[in-house]
Amino acid sequence: xxxxxxxxxxxxxLPTAALFAKAGFEVIGxxxxxxIVNLINQGISPxxxxxxxxxxxxxxxxxKLKATGDGEYAARKANIMIMxxxxxxxxxxxxxxxxxxxxxxxISKGLKKGDxxxxxxxxxxxxxxxxxxxxxxxxxxxxxKDFGLVYTPERALPNNxxxxxxxxxxxIGGIDEKSTERxxxxxxxxxxxxxxxxxxxxxxxxxKLMENTYRDTNIALANELxxxxxxxxxxxxxxxxxxxxxxxxxxxxxGPGVGGHCxxxxxxxxxxxxxxxxxxxxxxxxARQINEEMPYHVLQLIKDALNDTGASIQDSNIGILGxxxxxxxxxxxxxxxxxxxxxxxxxxxxxxxxDPYVKNEIxxxxxxxxxxxxxxxxxxxxxxxxxxxxxxxIEPNMIHGRVFICARPILQPEKFKEKGIIFKGVGRP
Length: 429
Description:
The protein is α/β, with parallel strands linked by helices. The protein is 42% helix and 14% strand.
C-alpha cells in the first residue's frame, strides 16, 4: 500500500492525514511548527473539530500516523505527497504562495520515480503548472514521464469537517490521465461522495475558487439588500425567507461580514489572475468590497442606537459577543469582529469580548478584554457578531444595558423591543 506524506497539519491537513491513516495507509504528517508535531505524536489534536480527537488518538496509537518537522525525510519515504499548506493574502491582496513554494522545494528534494504529488492548497489558477511543476522538476525528474501531479480542492465546513471530507463530492484534475486516475483510486478509499473528474489541472484549481466566489457574491447581494431594506423599514430577513420560496432563488443570509480562510480570500485569487490578463473582475471585486465594509455598517448601527439614548461610543462600554468568524468554532481567521473592535477602540470605546470557543490570549491580542457572558451583557451596548448556539438562549431580562445590536439573525427583535431595549440588526429596522 502507498505511503502518504501530508504537508501542512492545519484545519484540513490534519483531518486528511487522519482519514487516510484510518483507511489503512501509513501516513507521515509534516508541519513546521514543533508544538503541533509534538501534540500530534501524543495523539492530541491541536484543532477543535468534532470527532478528530478520537480519530487522531486511534491512528497514532496504531502507529498509522506519525508527525515530523523533517519534510525532506517524509518526501523520501513517501510515494504520495499531499500539499495542504496555507495560502493567505499579501498586504496588496495578491496571493502569498510562500508556503506552497517552500513545500514544493522540500518535496522536490525527496521526489522519486513513480511518485504522485497532490495539491489541495487553494491557489490561483495556473499555479500548479506555472509555479509548482517547475520546482518539482528541479529534482531532475520530468512530470508525466517520472512523476504525477494532481490538484483536488477540499470541500469541508468547520465543525463538520470529517463528515464532509468523507461524504462531499471530490473534484480531481491531473496533469495527465494517469495522474488523475491514480488520485481517483486514492480518494475513493476515504470518501463515499461522488468523485468528479475534470479535464485538466487548471480547471480543478478554478472550481474551488468559483465555489467560494459564488457564496461570497451571494452574501454580498444579501448584505446590500439588507442595507436597502433597513432604509425602507423592511425586515430583510423576512423578505429573504419569503423570496427563497421561489424555486430558483437561494439568497444567503446577511450578516456583519465574511470571515474564514476561504470566502474572504479565494475571490481575490480570481481577481489577481484575471487582471494579470487584462480582464476586470468587477462583480467579484464589488462583492468583496461590500462584505469587507459590513463591520463598519455594524459600527454605524451602534452609533445610531447609542445616539438614540443620548450616549456616544466614546462614553460607552461595548460588549462583543463572538470573535470566531462563524458559529460554534474557534477559528478567528479574517473574522469581521476584528475590524469592528479596532474601529470601536479608535472611537474611544471600552471593548470587552465573550466567546466560548476562542482562547483569552487571542481575544487580548485583538486589543479587547475577555469577560464572561454575564459580564458582557452588563455593557451599555451589546453587539452579537457570531452565531454561537449559546447566544440563541439570550433573553431580554439578561441584558442590563439599553442597546442590543444583533448582527446575526438568531434572535427575535420583538421580545427585546417590548422590554424597552433598542434592538437593531443587519437588515432589521
